[in-house]
Design goal:
Shape: globular
Bound molecules: fe (ii) ion
CATH topology of the largest domain: TIM Barrel
CATH architecture of the largest domain: Alpha-Beta Barrel
CATH superfamily of the largest domain: Metal-dependent hydrolases
Distance between the termini: 35 Å
Amino acid sequence: MELRAQLHMHTTESKGTRVRVHSNIHPKAAIDILKKKNIHVAAITDHDNTLAYPRMKDYAEKNGIILINGIEITTRDGEIIGLNVEPGIEKELDRKMSVHEAKDVILDHNGEVLIPHPFSFMGNGIGRKIKEIKGIVEVFNPGNIFSFEDKFAKVVAKKLKLPMVACSDAHYAKMIDRGITVVDAEPSIDSIFKSIRRGKIRFENCNYVTWREIKEWSFLRISSSYEGIMENLKDGWETDKMYMKLADLRFMRFIEKKMLNLGVSKPDSRIWGLMSYIIFLMTNLKAWRTKKSYKPFVFSL
Ligand SMILES: [Fe+2]
């Protein structure tokens, strides 16, 4: 039978370090949305914890949704996902781990390895390490708005003969049904992974986020993390990244506070428009550099 699967999504249990709110999808509400969107299988892949799964499990079962316990692990080499892992896996993880070490922990907990956004311009993918890690490759992520990111992932997955899936990486409700992998399998987790490995899949609703959606989510996220950001701006934060050091200068923090206050009090303020142009320019520059650095690797395989 054909099962519509969402294998990479977040709930409110995913927490950011600087901008605290990472997702506005409440665990229980997620099940209602999945059901409404006719999604039969879902993996909850919160950052570095598995707290949401036990809270959702029974309700998912009641609603006929196959729920998979997952985790998106931060490593010093980029992010890696464990799917169908045993609960409590986070106790053995550490953000300073290499991706190889994190993979071993996933396998020790009987999980499957999913490599999310390997060539993301944001730099949170494992990039060239995909060759050593191997696993199921996310070849569509709606946040990969630059054409090379998913294209490179597909080329590499094909060359290395790795299974492929499309995912949403949803952090807000609206995105849950983007990047659906339709799997031809029996309704069991084992059968689903077997079919993914055999390529008995097709993709649905692979549409990238629009600038309007990015602005919408940025506003939601920043305004609901207001207090935490203000705290950071007051005390400053530890960082070794050049652009963060600049943003951490006393004068810059003063400007940021003003902009944040203005932006939050007026959602339709020009400040958001101006900020999105600045971000647009910065991301384009970062994307161009990322593409240039990955290209030789991708086409040398
Ligand atoms: Fe994610």
